[in-house]
TrEMBL record:
This is Lactose transport system permease protein LacG. Residues 74-271 form the ABC transmembrane type-1 domain. The gene is lacG_8. InterPro entries: MetI-like, MetI-like_sf. It comes from Eisenbergiella tayi. Belongs to the binding-protein-dependent transport system permease family.
């Protein structure tokens, strides 16, 4: 018995060590990014910085906040993330609920169209022509409207709403509730895990997206933070002399392109990191909160 207990403890120790190593390997890139953002750019070029800043400075953040282009791109990303997440969650929930109802006519045909778009698309050029025909090019709404309904989210919502007991919906209808009232007052209140997951995925997708800003927007005032970071990284890679790159970005010659990028990445992590703890609790809860057992 003691031998078995010792073996179990040894296995537990090995598992904990592996988990700790995995956590360190996963989190260290984020930590290193934040570390570089607080270190002097020219000093960082010397290397040898792994744990603590060698020459602590806030000039990188002062440069980031003081640059109107970075600041404006940050607010554009915030605006598109909030607007896109709200609209995507609302429209996807309504569409998913409608397709989950057994009394919906041509339900299989609608589902086929949804699944078809998951695997096949018209291509970049036809999509560009479509957006131009809709008048969405070079507007803020090109970030939001195309993503209001996501096929993968719809299929996930169909599976979730189909698992809700029919007795809940029938009881609401007996009390005189209409379909929209059933959705808003009965279905959605017990769908918090799905809504939280959908909102987080939609928010992360909107926040990290830069292709739409690169292809469909020319107005510099509509550039997002992700696109601004991408262009800065490309400019840095295209610059052969580090001193020249630092001179292009900072007049004080204390910040480099890399430290500015690290600062932008550190700032871009903040919104998602602030939102995730409030949504995490719904991921570990049962998928049928408050449901009536059949």
């Amino acid at each position: 018995m003691k031998t078995k207990m010792n073996e179990d403890k040894a296995v537990d120790i090995i598992v904990y060590i592996l988990l700790a190593l995995t956590g360190i390997v996963t989190l260290y890139p984020f930590y290193y990014t934040i570390l570089c953002s607080f270190n002097d750019g020219l000093d960082l070029m010397k290397g040898g910085i792994y744990i603590w800043p060698r020459k602590f400075t806030l000039s990188n953040y002062e440069l980031f906040i003081g640059d109107s282009d970075w600041r404006h791109a940050f607010f554009i990303s915030i605006a598109r993330t909030l607007t896109g997440t709200i609209l995507c969650t609302g429209f996807t929930s309504m569409f998913s609920y409608a397709l989950s109802r057994n009394n919906l006519m041509f339900k299989k045909a609608y589902r086929f169209l949804v699944v078809f778009t998951m695997y096949f698309s018209g291509g970049l050029i036809p999509y560009y022509v479509l957006l131009r025909g809709l008048g969405l090019l070079n507007t803020f709404w090109v970030y939001v409207i195309p993503g209001m309904v996501n096929a993968f989210f719809v299929m996930t919502g169909i599976n979730f709403f189909s698992s809700i007991p029919e007795s809940m919906i029938e009881a609401a209808k007996i009390d005189g509730a209409r379909e929209i009232q059933v959705l808003l007052k009965v279905v959605l209140p017990v769908s918090k895990p799905f809504l939280a997951t959908l909102s987080l995925f939609a928010a992360v997708g909107q926040w990290n997206s830069w292709l739409d800003s690169a292809y469909y927007v020319r107005d510099i005032n509509l550039q997002t933070l992700s696109y601004k970071m991408m262009t800065t990284i490309n400019q840095t890679l295209a610059t052969s002399a580090n001193a020249e790159a630092a001179g292009q970005i900072s007049q004080a010659n204390t910040a480099t392109s890399f430290t500015v990028q690290a600062t932008a990445m550190a700032v871009s992590m903040i919104p998602i990191m602030c939102v995730y703890p409030f949504l995490q609790k719904y991921f570990v809860q049962g998928m049928m909160i408050g449901a009536v057992k059949e």
